[in-house]
Amino acid sequence: MPEPPGLPEPLPEPALHDLRLEVVLGALSDPLRLRIVRKLLLERERFDHPCGWFGLDRPKSSLSHHFKALREAGIIRQRQYGLERRSHVRTADLEARFPGLLDLVAAWTPAR
Amino acid sequence: MPEPPGLPEPLPEPALHDLRLEVVLGALSDPLRLRIVRKLLLERERFDHPCGWFGLDRPKSSLSHHFKALREAGIIRQRQYGLERRSHVRTADLEARFPGLLDLVAAWTPAR
Questions:
Q1: What are the chain A neighbours of B103 within 8 Å (beta carbons)?
Q2: Which residues of B touch A (CB under 8 A)?
Q3: Of A22, A29, A34, the CB nearest to B34
Q4: Per the count of CB atoms within 10 A, which of A16, A31, B23, B110 is most buried?
Q5: Contact A77, A10 (CB under 8 A)
Q6: pLDDT digits (tens, 9 = 90+) for B5-55
Protein backbone atom coordinates (compact mmCIF):
# COMPACT_ATOMS: atom_id res chain seq x y z
CA MET A 1 0.00 0.00 0.00
CA PRO A 2 1.62 3.31 -1.06
CA GLU A 3 2.00 6.07 1.49
CA PRO A 4 -0.85 8.58 1.17
CA PRO A 5 0.15 12.27 1.00
CA GLY A 6 -0.05 14.60 4.00
CA LEU A 7 0.62 12.12 6.79
CA PRO A 8 1.94 13.31 10.17
CA GLU A 9 5.68 12.82 10.76
CA PRO A 10 6.63 9.34 12.01
CA LEU A 11 7.53 9.04 15.69
CA PRO A 12 11.24 8.41 16.44
CA GLU A 13 12.45 5.08 15.03
CA PRO A 14 15.72 3.43 14.00
CA ALA A 15 16.90 4.06 10.44
CA LEU A 16 17.05 1.15 8.00
CA HIS A 17 20.80 0.63 8.45
CA ASP A 18 20.45 0.66 12.24
CA LEU A 19 18.03 -2.29 12.37
CA ARG A 20 19.61 -5.13 14.40
CA LEU A 21 18.52 -8.76 14.12
CA GLU A 22 18.95 -9.43 17.86
CA VAL A 23 16.72 -6.44 18.70
CA VAL A 24 14.05 -7.31 16.12
CA LEU A 25 13.91 -10.94 17.28
CA GLY A 26 13.67 -9.83 20.90
CA ALA A 27 10.77 -7.51 20.12
CA LEU A 28 8.94 -10.32 18.30
CA SER A 29 9.49 -12.95 21.02
CA ASP A 30 6.07 -12.37 22.54
CA PRO A 31 2.73 -13.83 21.43
CA LEU A 32 0.85 -10.53 21.74
CA ARG A 33 3.41 -8.74 19.57
CA LEU A 34 3.37 -11.53 17.00
CA ARG A 35 -0.40 -11.19 16.94
CA ILE A 36 -0.21 -7.42 16.38
CA VAL A 37 2.31 -7.68 13.54
CA ARG A 38 0.55 -10.66 11.96
CA LYS A 39 -2.80 -8.83 11.92
CA LEU A 40 -1.16 -5.77 10.36
CA LEU A 41 0.38 -8.01 7.69
CA LEU A 42 -2.67 -10.09 6.86
CA GLU A 43 -5.74 -7.99 7.64
CA ARG A 44 -4.67 -4.50 6.72
CA GLU A 45 -7.59 -2.25 5.80
CA ARG A 46 -5.96 1.16 5.48
CA PHE A 47 -2.51 2.73 5.71
CA ASP A 48 -2.21 3.18 9.50
CA HIS A 49 -4.20 1.37 12.17
CA PRO A 50 -5.07 2.59 15.67
CA CYS A 51 -4.72 0.41 18.75
CA GLY A 52 -8.48 -0.21 18.97
CA TRP A 53 -8.58 -1.87 15.54
CA PHE A 54 -6.66 -4.87 16.89
CA GLY A 55 -9.43 -5.88 19.32
CA LEU A 56 -6.93 -6.79 22.04
CA ASP A 57 -8.31 -7.24 25.53
CA ARG A 58 -5.47 -5.52 27.42
CA PRO A 59 -5.12 -2.25 29.33
CA LYS A 60 -4.26 0.67 27.07
CA SER A 61 -1.00 1.30 28.96
CA SER A 62 0.13 -2.26 28.31
CA LEU A 63 -0.74 -2.01 24.63
CA SER A 64 1.10 1.32 24.34
CA HIS A 65 4.19 -0.36 25.78
CA HIS A 66 4.06 -3.19 23.23
CA PHE A 67 3.51 -0.87 20.26
CA LYS A 68 6.40 1.31 21.44
CA ALA A 69 8.69 -1.73 21.74
CA LEU A 70 7.80 -2.75 18.19
CA ARG A 71 8.48 0.77 16.94
CA GLU A 72 11.79 1.13 18.77
CA ALA A 73 12.96 -2.19 17.32
CA GLY A 74 12.09 -0.89 13.84
CA ILE A 75 9.22 -3.29 13.13
CA ILE A 76 6.34 -0.81 12.98
CA ARG A 77 6.16 2.87 12.12
CA GLN A 78 3.87 4.97 14.33
CA ARG A 79 2.32 8.34 13.64
CA GLN A 80 0.34 10.63 15.91
CA TYR A 81 -3.12 11.53 14.55
CA GLY A 82 -4.50 14.01 17.09
CA LEU A 83 -4.94 11.99 20.29
CA GLU A 84 -4.43 8.66 18.56
CA ARG A 85 -1.32 6.76 17.50
CA ARG A 86 -1.64 4.59 14.43
CA SER A 87 0.78 2.01 13.06
CA HIS A 88 1.85 0.03 10.06
CA VAL A 89 4.60 -2.54 9.52
CA ARG A 90 7.88 -1.39 7.92
CA THR A 91 7.51 -4.19 5.41
CA ALA A 92 9.98 -2.94 2.78
CA ASP A 93 12.66 -2.14 5.37
CA LEU A 94 12.32 -5.52 7.10
CA GLU A 95 12.30 -7.43 3.82
CA ALA A 96 15.43 -5.57 2.76
CA ARG A 97 17.32 -6.31 5.95
CA PHE A 98 15.85 -9.63 7.12
CA PRO A 99 14.31 -11.36 4.09
CA GLY A 100 11.72 -13.98 5.01
CA LEU A 101 11.27 -12.90 8.63
CA LEU A 102 7.83 -11.41 8.06
CA ASP A 103 6.74 -14.61 6.30
CA LEU A 104 7.46 -16.47 9.55
CA VAL A 105 5.36 -13.95 11.48
CA ALA A 106 2.52 -14.25 8.97
CA ALA A 107 2.62 -18.06 9.29
CA TRP A 108 2.65 -17.98 13.11
CA THR A 109 -0.36 -19.26 15.04
CA PRO A 110 -0.97 -18.87 18.77
CA ALA A 111 -0.28 -21.89 21.03
CA ARG A 112 -3.40 -23.88 21.97
CA MET B 1 26.37 -33.86 8.03
CA PRO B 2 24.73 -37.25 8.78
CA GLU B 3 24.47 -38.45 12.38
CA PRO B 4 27.34 -40.83 13.19
CA PRO B 5 26.38 -44.14 14.86
CA GLY B 6 26.75 -44.74 18.58
CA LEU B 7 26.15 -41.20 19.87
CA PRO B 8 25.00 -40.61 23.45
CA GLU B 9 21.28 -39.86 23.89
CA PRO B 10 20.34 -36.20 23.36
CA LEU B 11 19.61 -34.16 26.48
CA PRO B 12 15.93 -33.23 26.99
CA GLU B 13 14.61 -30.96 24.24
CA PRO B 14 11.29 -29.95 22.68
CA ALA B 15 9.96 -32.20 19.92
CA LEU B 16 9.67 -30.83 16.39
CA HIS B 17 5.93 -30.14 16.69
CA ASP B 18 6.46 -28.32 20.01
CA LEU B 19 8.83 -25.71 18.60
CA ARG B 20 7.33 -22.23 19.06
CA LEU B 21 8.34 -19.20 17.03
CA GLU B 22 8.08 -16.81 20.00
CA VAL B 23 10.39 -19.04 22.08
CA VAL B 24 12.94 -19.56 19.28
CA LEU B 25 13.07 -15.82 18.54
CA GLY B 26 13.49 -15.05 22.25
CA ALA B 27 16.39 -17.50 22.55
CA LEU B 28 18.09 -15.91 19.52
CA SER B 29 17.62 -12.30 20.66
CA ASP B 30 21.13 -12.13 22.13
CA PRO B 31 24.41 -11.40 20.31
CA LEU B 32 26.33 -14.18 22.09
CA ARG B 33 23.71 -16.77 21.16
CA LEU B 34 23.59 -15.55 17.56
CA ARG B 35 27.37 -15.91 17.51
CA ILE B 36 27.19 -19.49 18.84
CA VAL B 37 24.55 -20.59 16.33
CA ARG B 38 26.22 -18.76 13.45
CA LYS B 39 29.57 -20.41 14.14
CA LEU B 40 27.91 -23.82 14.30
CA LEU B 41 26.21 -23.13 10.97
CA LEU B 42 29.20 -21.73 9.10
CA GLU B 43 32.32 -23.24 10.66
CA ARG B 44 31.24 -26.73 11.59
CA GLU B 45 34.18 -29.20 11.71
CA ARG B 46 32.57 -32.34 13.15
CA PHE B 47 29.14 -33.54 14.25
CA ASP B 48 29.01 -32.12 17.82
CA HIS B 49 31.09 -29.27 19.20
CA PRO B 50 32.14 -28.66 22.80
CA CYS B 51 31.90 -25.27 24.49
CA GLY B 52 35.66 -24.68 24.23
CA TRP B 53 35.57 -24.86 20.42
CA PHE B 54 33.69 -21.56 20.24
CA GLY B 55 36.55 -19.53 21.75
CA LEU B 56 34.16 -17.41 23.81
CA ASP B 57 35.68 -15.35 26.59
CA ARG B 58 32.96 -15.90 29.20
CA PRO B 59 32.72 -17.85 32.45
CA LYS B 60 31.79 -21.49 31.92
CA SER B 61 28.62 -21.10 34.02
CA SER B 62 27.43 -18.27 31.79
CA LEU B 63 28.14 -20.27 28.64
CA SER B 64 26.31 -23.31 30.07
CA HIS B 65 23.29 -21.11 30.65
CA HIS B 66 23.28 -19.85 27.06
CA PHE B 67 23.70 -23.32 25.55
CA LYS B 68 20.90 -24.63 27.75
CA ALA B 69 18.59 -21.79 26.67
CA LEU B 70 19.31 -22.62 23.02
CA ARG B 71 18.62 -26.31 23.66
CA GLU B 72 15.39 -25.69 25.57
CA ALA B 73 14.13 -23.48 22.75
CA GLY B 74 14.85 -26.30 20.29
CA ILE B 75 17.65 -24.56 18.39
CA ILE B 76 20.56 -26.83 19.32
CA ARG B 77 20.76 -30.50 20.33
CA GLN B 78 23.15 -31.29 23.18
CA ARG B 79 24.71 -34.61 24.12
CA GLN B 80 26.81 -35.54 27.14
CA TYR B 81 30.21 -37.02 26.22
CA GLY B 82 31.74 -37.96 29.57
CA LEU B 83 32.28 -34.67 31.40
CA GLU B 84 31.67 -32.57 28.30
CA ARG B 85 28.50 -31.39 26.58
CA ARG B 86 28.67 -30.96 22.83
CA SER B 87 26.17 -29.33 20.51
CA HIS B 88 24.93 -29.03 16.99
CA VAL B 89 22.14 -27.01 15.37
CA ARG B 90 18.80 -28.74 14.68
CA THR B 91 19.02 -27.50 11.12
CA ALA B 92 16.46 -29.83 9.54
CA ASP B 93 13.89 -29.26 12.32
CA LEU B 94 14.28 -25.47 12.17
CA GLU B 95 14.15 -25.39 8.38
CA ALA B 96 10.98 -27.49 8.49
CA ARG B 97 9.22 -25.27 11.01
CA PHE B 98 10.71 -21.81 10.35
CA PRO B 99 12.10 -21.78 6.81
CA GLY B 100 14.70 -19.09 6.24
CA LEU B 101 15.31 -18.28 9.91
CA LEU B 102 18.75 -19.90 9.98
CA ASP B 103 19.73 -17.95 6.85
CA LEU B 104 19.13 -14.76 8.83
CA VAL B 105 21.33 -16.05 11.65
CA ALA B 106 24.07 -17.03 9.20
CA ALA B 107 23.92 -13.54 7.63
CA TRP B 108 24.06 -11.78 11.02
CA THR B 109 27.14 -9.75 11.97
CA PRO B 110 27.93 -8.30 15.40
CA ALA B 111 27.32 -4.56 15.93
CA ARG B 112 30.45 -2.41 15.66
A1: 99-100
A2: 20-23, 25-26, 28-31, 34, 98-101, 103-105, 108, 111
A3: A22
A4: B23
A5: yes
A6: 999 999 999 999 999 999 999 999 999 999 999 999 999 999 999 999 999
Q: Which residue of chain B has the CA closest to A100?
A: B100
pTM of this prediction? 0.95
Residues in A closer than 8 angstroms to B34, CB to CB, are 21-22
CB-CB contact of B98 with B24 (8 Å): yes
Min Cα–Cα distance to chain B from A92, Å: 16
Could you count the other beta carbons within 10 Å of the beta carbon of residue B1? 10
Distance between CA atoms of residues A19 and A73, nearest Å: 7
Q: What is the pLDDT of residues A62-100, one digit of tens each?
A: 999 999 999 999 999 999 999 999 999 999 999 999 999
How far is B74 from chain A, CA to nearest CA, in Å? 14
Residues B41 and B91: their CA atoms lie apart, in Å, by 8
CB < 8 Å & 24+ apart, contacts of B80-88: B80/B8, B80/B11, B81/B8, B81/B48, B81/B50, B84/B50, B84/B51, B85/B11, B85/B50, B85/B51, B86/B48, B86/B49, B86/B50, B87/B40, B87/B48, B87/B49, B87/B50, B88/B1, B88/B40, B88/B44, B88/B47, B88/B48, B88/B49
